[in-house]
Amino acid sequence: MKYAAVLALCLVGAVASAQTDVHGVQPDHMDKTATPGSDWFRYANGAYLARTEIPADRTGYSSFSTLADVVNKRVAAIIGDAAKSGAAEGTEKRKIADLYASYENAGMIEAAGLTPLKPELAAIDSVKTRGELAVALGGTLRADVDALNNTNFHTANLFGVWVAPGFNDPDHYAVYLLQGGLQLPSRDYYLTDNAKMKAVREAYGSHIATIFRLAGYAEPEARAAGVMRLETAIAQKQISLAESEDISKADNVWQMGDFATKAPGMDWAGYFKAAQLGGQASFIVWQPTAVTADAALVGSEPIEDWKNYLVFHTIESYAGPFRRLQVGALPKAFEDEYFDFYGKTLTGATEQRPRDQRALQVVNNVLGDAVGQLYAQVYFPAADKAKVEVMVHNLLTAFHARLEAVTWMAPATKAEALKKLGTLQVGIGYADHWRTYAGLEIKPDDLFGNIRRYEAFEYRYNLERIGKPVDRKEWVMTPQTVNAVNLPLDNGLNFPAAIFGQPFFDAKAPDAVNYGAIGTIIGHEISHTFDSEGASFDSQGKVRNWWTDADRAHFDASIEALAKQYDSYAPFPDLHLNGHQTLGENIADLAGLTAAHDAWLASLKGKPAPEVDGMSGEQQFFLGYAQSEAGKSREAALRQQVLTDPHSPSEYRADTVRNLDAWYPAFAVKDGQTLYLAPEMRVHIW
Question: Counting Cβ atoms within 10 Å, is residue 672 exposed (0-12), middle (13-18) or buried (19+)?
Fold first, then answer.
């Protein structure tokens, strides 16, 4: 339900940086020796790909990275100004400065060692019974999951909790319980039987043992083996990402009393009490088979293995910058070991990011709205917002026209679809109101304490919302985030200010290019309202089947054709895309590009599009889209994306153009060329 995975922003030197003196299609990105109909991605971006080197501390580099670098330089300036401001203690500016300072103080972290963790480790060591084990597991539960965006930021918790509008009562916040328990990116890393995955598992086992050794535990290899056994058993019972996206299978309401009968093996009363959810009457259980299986493991597997599991993940959660807060709060030996596995082995990065860059990310993640207010004031001028609002209006109009023109929908289905579109809440730039951090104590010399206090603050914030009316104006992204999101439970969209920059939006660029780039992103998010997940929600955000059987059958047949198209793409000889795993995002790419094209044509008001540098308006539109997808990844990172991400890799997203009739004459694409699709094979959903 998002346009692209949230990027880790960092301050590095420009790599293949945006040409700020060129406003529109970037000719020096192109490889005109390539044939558009056979290698569209290289035609649009070949020169860019050839000269772009992935920095040592990155897993890839893309158009998003280019803009993210610009945004992060701005954020760094905001943090620097906060540090110089002399703001009073307790103010948000002071908290920004103090949090940054606490992360930069590496000497303090080295001196503290594992001392801050000793109370937690001692509590785990004291566990003797299954009941005490349930309490220890419940104490790890955190509200850092976003189920609809397929994101679990703290996956090593046995379960994840998500507080969001209810499936059946979208006007009030409900509690969702989700599968978790794995530290590797997905269940495939534990279960796939090939040489590459076996090598990753061996490296992971060695990593676990090294963490135990660094922490001073005896028999580290034996402890690591126990952790691996547990995680493998958990992985065997998890459902896939593609299955998790089926909302009809996720809507399972369990009363508190149901857990003991439906998922025996766990002392659920003790678990939920420790998680501060003892008084909660009901939960929406997203993956019930996994919850049942995991509870059985709690009741059957050796307590010592579970204790080692908890010790390892407790240390791991503070050791490196790959968790949600991007924080490494333990001594350098732990941080280096963490990066050696998660950076080098899993993603192919060869260098750790400089500490000041990681400090920047910590501030963004912990005090995002405090930084965001300052960012929005300076970097999203009213003139840019006004131009974007016109584009959004035109995109919504284009979608409305397409829905009106659909001939296969029954009147009742079409009426609800139009109602969904008409009630869509679109947020541009920043929220109407901001989160406050009153009550969150930040100290300049206590990084570990800052992290703990923030996590408690955030968890309490989520728990206090349960059962209360939904704030549909609340954002899930900060203005400085280079991303966009659809919120089906709110029937809303967020377009943060930071996404409105080159190469996605340039106020000086031709409209054709802007519609191809940012217009497609806007259309992408609008279209999520009607994708394979969004179609399960009505105009109020409630899970409800508002389709006739015939309408849904027609829709499912159309999207199945798109799934098969993406199944055929193979980034590596041994690894194809999973068209069902990426289906929602592929639908959004196709529908968004189609609507953006319609909206651009409508904006011309019957006049011919201006030609620029010998390129027609149609060529500028499609190149604007393809160049916004420019990027390259390390092999390990790309393999991980294919296995775990609902988004297709950039090249295949760019190839969406092969389904639009207008692309063919614009680039003289002919039968026999690799990307050519006969008219009847082109997928048209809306």
Answer: exposed
Task: Give yes or no for a contact between 242 and 532, defined as CB atoms under 8 angstroms apart.
Answer: no
State how beta strands 60-62 and 631-633 pair.
Answer: antiparallel
What DSSP element (H or E) covers 24?
none
Distance of alpha carbon 440 from alpha carbon 604, whole angstroms: 51
Cα 473 from Cα 407, distance rounded (Å): 34
> By three-state DSSP, how is residue 492 classified?
strand
Query: Does 303 have pLDDT greater than 60?
Result: yes
Residue 40 has pLDDT above 80, yes or no: yes
In the beta sheet, which residues pair with residue 543?
537
In three state form, how does the secondary structure of 398-440 look?
A: HHHHHHHHCCCCCHHHHHHHHHHHHCCEEEEECCCCCCCCCCC
368-417 confidence digits (pLDDT tens): 999 999 999 999 988 888 988 999 999 999 999 999 999 999 999 999 99
With residues binned 3-state (H G I as helix, E B as strand, rest as coil), the percentages for the chain, rounded to 5, are 55, 10, 40
What is the spatial distance between Cα 482 and Cα 484, in angstroms, rounded to a whole number?
Answer: 7
Q: Which residue has the higher pLDDT, 627 or 530?
A: 627
SS (H, E, C) 233-301: HHHHHCCCHHHHCCHHHHCCEEECCHHHHHCCCCCHHHHHHHCCCCCCCEEEECCHHHHHHHHHHHHHC
Contact 335, 320 (CB under 8 A): yes
The total number of residues written for the chain in this structure? 686
3-state secondary structure of 633: strand
Task: Confirm if 137 and 310 have CB atoms less than 8 A apart.
Answer: yes
User: Which CATH architecture describes the domain 27-73+367-681?
Assistant: 3-Layer(aba) Sandwich (3.40)
Structure tokens belonging to residue 309: 């599991």
**Is 352 strand, coil or helix?**
coil
All structural domains of the chain with their residue ranges: 27-73+367-681, 114-330
**Quick one: tokens of 63?**
């158009």
Q: Which two tokens stand for residue 396?
A: 């919504």
**pLDDT at residue 148, rounded to an integer:** 58
Q: How far is residue 188's CA from residue 190's CA, in Å, rounded to a whole number?
A: 5
- CA-nearest of 550, 442, 420, 551 to 486 is 420
Q: Is the dihedral of CA 178, 184, 185, 190 positive or negative?
A: negative
Task: Return the SS3 of 187.
Answer: coil
- Joined together, the tokens standing for residue 390 give 């016109």
Confidence of residue 326 (pLDDT cuts 50, 70, 90): low
The identity of residue 428, as a single letter, is: I
Torsion of CA 248, 250, 251, 255, to 10 degrees: 150
Give the span between the Cα atoms of 580 and 116, in whole angstroms.
44
Q: How far apart are CA 513 and CA 142, in angstroms?
A: 42
CB neighbours of 389 closer than 8 A, spacing ≥ 6? 428
Nearest one of 147, 300, 158, 309 to 228, comparing CA atoms: 309
Rounded CA-CA distance 651/632 in Å is 9
In the chain, the amino acid numbered 662 is: A
Domain 114-330 matching CATH 2.30.110.10: the answer reads: no
* CA quadruple 529, 535, 539, 541: dihedral, nearest 10: -90
Question: Does the N-terminal peptide bond of residue 469 adopt cis geometry, omega within 30 degrees of 0?
Answer: no
